[in-house]
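Hi R.,

Here's the chain you asked about this morning:
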Amino acid sequence: MEKNIVTLMLQEYDSFTRSERKIADYVLEHQKETQYISITDLSAECEVAVSTVSLFCRKLKLAGFNDFKLELARAVLPAGSIPGGPSGEITPADTPVTVKSKVLHTAQEALNNAYYMLTEREVSRAVDLLQNAGQVICLGQGNHSVVALAAWAQFSTTSPKFKTIQDSHMQTVVLSTLSTRDVVLYFSYSGATHELLEAAEVVRARGARLILVTRFSSSPASAYADTVLLCGPNEQPFQFGSSSALIAQLYVVEVLLSEFVRRDPEKAEHYRQSVGKALTQKCI
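And here is the predicted structure, written out as tokens:
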């Protein structure tokens, strides 16, 4: 893009509709905050429809809201700096010691935020669903597929009903055969990807249950979920699935696992001993 997105908004301001001017006014006044907001939250702040935000972005010749946030981040980010999370950007002038410190602080901040965002009621509701499920499918897209894989690896030592599928085609196949006793545990930072919404539609059509782990309570996928577990830092658009977001979601996995085991420690121990005995054969 040749022009800075902020400059372009100011240049095109007179051509905007009244609703589009609300969006422009908010963004211009909250340039840094808008990088971390979801499209549904922005529409609520500006009191306009989500579709109006999408049209506003396209009027600026952008592919959509995420593209808009990328351009805004590029306009706001100081020259030469590298996105490093809310605790401060990592700059070329930083020493390795400073980088270590900033990364540690960001990870600690992500865990603290996850602790306060995660409610006891939603954890209890999620574990109720996991306990009563016939099978639990752990899913995620992109970087978050790693969290889904970790969740399956952790839970599979305590129960045989946990599974994961990495291939998107096979995910659709498995989701289309779910029963009303089955549960999908889905990890998504935004809660607003096409893959997630398509999966949620299939889960609902099958009468299965959906546990969503996401950053935004008002994300489009939240409307499909039986329970929403909130966690995650304010991720900058250029971070594309930061380690901090993954750390926060892994914390949620550990909380769910610990509560799952706490409710039936004897059964969990039975499976863990069986797994442990089998794994000893793999050690030298």
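One quick note: The two ends are 57 Å apart (CA to CA).

Cheers,
M.
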